[in-house]
């Protein structure tokens, strides 16, 4: 085979047509997730009128400029590939409202200025990439409701992005941002327990089984040490505290 690197699975037009699904809202989605695709199949141009494309979980390194042919696209999922940069032509997809680029290899230079032309974009996921900065021009995406920036190398979020008028969810976790540099307060480990999982003995390794049996034996010892009902007579009429005895205790000691 010519060229270097993995060739991936070859997607024919027949395979692509069979991968088109009609959703409940009437949109047609081209579902090519987890197909081992390494290059954008040119045969997809025959299906350029679809409204949604799922090319997630493949091995794509590049999105070609022919993406501009898909002018009906509303929803584009490219997460979990190896994409390092986007073509400028991505900005021509004026109907796009959802763009997932999570878990790729995008750098700041890999984000074209034309990305800000997606004026109808409501969801943009750039998490799990290699971004060191975010272009201030992303603040022009006035329709953004959800923005994912988690797990990058960001040290600042531009004010223009923070003040997006319709933003409801912005995930910036696990970035070296100054506001997250403060030492977190210790958390009570007991409060952190959310679930209790029960397993059968046969599912445990010998070490874990021995440890659990030891803990159980310790609990049984504590149960054996717990005092039961007393056999001593119970003086129900005795008043506590006994004020008379307390007043005369010094006299009793002398005697």
Automatic annotation (TrEMBL):
InterPro entries: Leu-rich_rpt (IPR001611), Leu-rich_rpt_typical-subtyp (IPR003591), LRR_dom_sf (IPR032675), LRR_domain-containing (IPR050216). The gene is Lrrc18. Residues 222-255 are annotated as: Disordered. Residues 233-246 have a biased composition (Polar residues). It holds the Pfam family LRR_1. Keywords: Leucine-rich repeat, Repeat. GO terms for cellular component: cytoplasm. Gene3D superfamilies: Ribonuclease Inhibitor (3.80.10.10). This is LRC18 protein.
